[in-house]
């Protein structure tokens, strides 16, 4: 059985999109669980003494053809960037070039992390090149590639700030974060042992410098900012902000989630940021993989270089080597991070070069502004760059998003940042054509024109209908064993 | 000037779009003060796909072609082609976190199945759908211990032989908490239970042990460690890997409260340390609310049909912010997908056989090396899994370097100790390897 | 929209109610609060024998998308906990002043000073 998408407007040339689903004869499940397709229990027999081994193991045992069908069917019930537009704000859902996958699949890319430096000059060379590229792109003096995601990059950066203060004999207790920031910023500061001081925005949706002045003190370890911020607005006072933070001896941290707005036009390092992370699974087109893996390299100024994680790659007269920076914070990943992701980011940057990177940002900003022009929802803050935050107004943003699913597009991020009521945070990225943006706008507008009853009951054309979140949370069933227990 | 090859705009479309917006250039859309504008260059020349591919590949080719006998917590098992092909389906790899479950049922179900496999393998009730790697999963376990009301102390006890990467990450994860990390001694590779008994008391928050250990030995009597932790209201966290779980004592049956470790031993090759962190724990109410990371749960859709969704999200950073159980957001979902595929492709028979082979290969290889003059193997009088430590008369660094010249990589783990790991990925090279060792140890 | 208010209760601005009954008092959250939260999926409460302190956090109530701290309207020892809420958190939505109660606390009369009356609370929510 397959469900077909409704057209937002029969007149417009909208994609029709089919999302497959399979229903069992009893009508109550889609593609059966692997366990339902057949499991087997084996008695564990071994040369080891019995008391060192388990007794038995029960797992599914599909044949290879069955396995292939299972996952193919599952994939057909999943929406990716290649299924259609994916304007999920703050996530930078770009097309992921195929050739980067081919490079990651090479045998010489799959080596063990404990090999000697002399036998891994290729890997070290690519890592070093990527460090250099990212340093140049962000205006940073030194870059570590170890953090395995953006949040891990934040943690690394805040630990660097902490070590820097400690090296100055300075115990500080607070990290300042704008209210509109991403949840990871707050969680990271807490993980590093800091109290969070939350900073309100001003009426223009930017950092309120008076409130910042009031929040800053000798206790300020760092201010974490995104620029453009989560509303897509450039913090025009950034130099003044940097000066204010530096005046109290604090570190200015840049959350690189929104770097796709600035490539080749402005660099965090030039704005006065001391530490930044890059989200390569956003800006540099590595696939999000259904929630990861990403990579969150961290760049720092010269002054902070000595605190970078261990090991750090550097060039020698004859090649590359790793070393432990003098005052290293130590490790943030068991080895050297998400190498294959870094490799794909390197390949992407190599392919685009200066011109391609600058054009990616130009088109990302063009697309966001063009799309914004076409949609009926109000957009309270501007001028925005690669993303904008519309308000669903009287509608519940989450419901409006569900309605958009009926038109075969992925909806924007909803209900964040909270400064916009019923937020629809929208980031089309540079990969969409004018035609696709028109179709996407038609989906927005059709959702906007839908009545409450319709959006509350949406979606109706997807593999699954609206899913009951309350039941999932009240009665957690987190494994097929839990489902069996229920029966 | 060429543009991004992945931006589809023609010049006339760009003009039409600018007209619609009401500006005359792309530059006019950037609200960036002049003083922070960048007008320099990165100096990276754009390349055709073919040239870019060649450039990266030619640098990669500077890696020597070695046969690796390396492990110590990160393993290379043969990954069937079917895993690569299925996991690379673009609907999977190009999708995002499942914030819209109605169009993400496929990935959610695959992650639910992954969680279920871990529940079976660990005997614990709950598994999340990934941490970055084994080291960060261990760090998360420690901070979990601190959050639990039923756990009293602040000392985290880890074996003296803990892998340096895991220890380093753990130290950083506890840096913002009241926890301190201490080591307890090992005896002949395994937990020194007497010494540990002396060290565990009411001030202990967590006891961590590994099976197999970083030196490849298989633990005996982990249940006493479980009892010890239990008596003193400490969390017992067990580190392991996805293959070992199929054979060694079930973590739940030795009293483990939490299981962490490496999942990428299946599903991903060596990948230079790129991994997958396992995280499973008991399912009681207190723990469930404190689990870090993402959880997929079953629910029903509007037609009352079974459906899957991310759940218990109030634990996570996007809702609970500074009081979240962890800052993790992007994780290793796609690696978890691969690992689940690999487990399913092996089935229970194949997985147990692979685990049994890991015991046999370590034993046989140690036996062969032990016959050589200048080598005693294994150093530890224990059962081994995949790998073992061997004593060499010559300095270990020199042996490792000489072996590398012969095309083989091993760990030098002590002045006169090398460590050797054997899987189906390098087994075919074993004769040559043993011959090379016999040459270089003399 | 109008919300139920129990005139036998006194209130905190943060939407907890307390209803005296002999030496003990019951504590819960208001109809207004449960409506703001949406479907309650989890309630975390102290154990019997624990002490709670006026205006201090004593637990957490969670819906799908929000987490709220619970503040104690009075100080005292917890003498009973509504354990039904652990399996049936929906009682907080269905009957916030009745079966959805949370704690029973041995309190001091003087604790009621400064708590909102039903009328004051109603004025606050309107
Ligand atoms: C603004 C912002 N900061 C930080 C992050 C965290 O990045 P990651 O998911 O890679 O940990 C995100 C991504 O979701 C983000 O949008």
TrEMBL record, chain A:
Presence of keyword Transferase: yes
Pfam families: Aminotran_5, GcvP2_C
Keywords: Aminotransferase, Oxidoreductase, Pyridoxal phosphate, Transferase
Domain (Glycine dehydrogenase C-terminal) ranges: 360-447
Keyword Oxidoreductase listed: yes
Enzyme class label: oxidoreductase
Gene Ontology molecular function, alphabetical: glycine binding; glycine dehydrogenase (decarboxylating) activity; pyridoxal phosphate binding; transaminase activity
Region (Disordered): 1-64, 447-487
Chemical reaction(s) catalysed: N(6)-[(R)-lipoyl]-L-lysyl-[glycine-cleavage complex H protein] + glycine + H(+) = N(6)-[(R)-S(8)-aminomethyldihydrolipoyl]-L-lysyl-[glycine-cleavage complex H protein] + CO2
Enzyme Commission no: 1.4.4.2
Cellular component annotations (GO), alphabetically ordered: cytosol; glycine cleavage complex
Residue ranges constituting the Aminotransferase class V domain according to the UniProt record: 159-289
Ranges annotated as biased composition (Basic and acidic residues): 1-10
Gene3D superfamilies in UniProt: 6.20.440.10, Aspartate Aminotransferase, domain 1, Type I PLP-dependent aspartate aminotransferase-like (Major domain)
PANTHER family per UniProt: GLYCINE DEHYDROGENASE (DECARBOXYLATING), MITOCHONDRIAL (PTHR11773:SF1), GLYCINE DEHYDROGENASE, DECARBOXYLATING (PTHR11773)
Name of this chain's protein: glycine dehydrogenase (aminomethyl-transferring)
Organism annotation: Halosegnis rubeus
Lineage, opening ranks: Archaea, Methanobacteriati, Methanobacteriota, Stenosarchaea group, Halobacteria
TrEMBL record, chain B:
Keyword entries, A-Z: Oxidoreductase
Primary enzyme class: oxidoreductase
Pfam families: GDC-P
Protein name in UniProt: Aminomethyl-transferring glycine dehydrogenase subunit GcvPA
Species this chain originates from: Halosegnis rubeus
Gene Ontology MF: a single term: glycine dehydrogenase (decarboxylating) activity
EC number: 1.4.4.2
GO aspect biological process, one term: nucleoside metabolic process
InterPro entries xrefs: GcvPA, GDC-P_N, PyrdxlP-dep_Trfase, PyrdxlP-dep_Trfase_major, PyrdxlP-dep_Trfase_small
Highest taxon of source: Archaea
Domain Glycine cleavage system P-protein N-terminal stretches: 6-427
Automatic annotation (TrEMBL), chain C:
One BP term from GO: protein lipoylation
Gene Ontology cellular-component annotations: cytoplasm; glycine cleavage complex
Cofactor(s) recorded in Swiss-Prot or TrEMBL: (R)-lipoate
Alphabetical list of CDD domains matching this protein: GCS_H
Domain (Lipoyl-binding) ranges: 24-106
Tagged with keyword Transmembrane: no
Residues bearing PTM N6-lipoyllysine: 65
Keyword terms of this UniProt record: Lipoyl
Physiological role: The glycine cleavage system catalyzes the degradation of glycine. The H protein shuttles the methylamine group of glycine from the P protein to the T protein.
UniProt subunit comment: The glycine cleavage system is composed of four proteins: P, T, L and H.
HAMAP family associated with the record: GcvH (MF_00272)
Protein's name according to its UniProt entry: Probable glycine cleavage system H protein
